[in-house]
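User: My instructor asked us to take a sequence, write out its structure as tokens, and then describe one feature of it. I'm not sure where to start. Here is the sequence I was given:
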Amino acid sequence: MISGGNFEQLPAHLKIDKENGITEAEIVEVITHLSFYVGWPKAWSAMNAAKAAYRPE
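Assistant: Let's start with the prediction itself. The structure tokens for your sequence are:
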């Protein structure tokens, strides 16, 4: 989704990731790794979505 720029769907998937035990640090690591392949602008947008998903409710 990140490489295709499909950010509208990303929050739902991040919520599922969180429910399945993926930590915030792990998500940050994955997005950082992807940034070198998809480009920093897309990674930064994904990072903002991840921040929102892992923000305390």
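For the description part of your assignment, you could build on this observation: Residues 24-38 form the longest helix (15 residues). Try explaining in your own words what that tells you about the chain.
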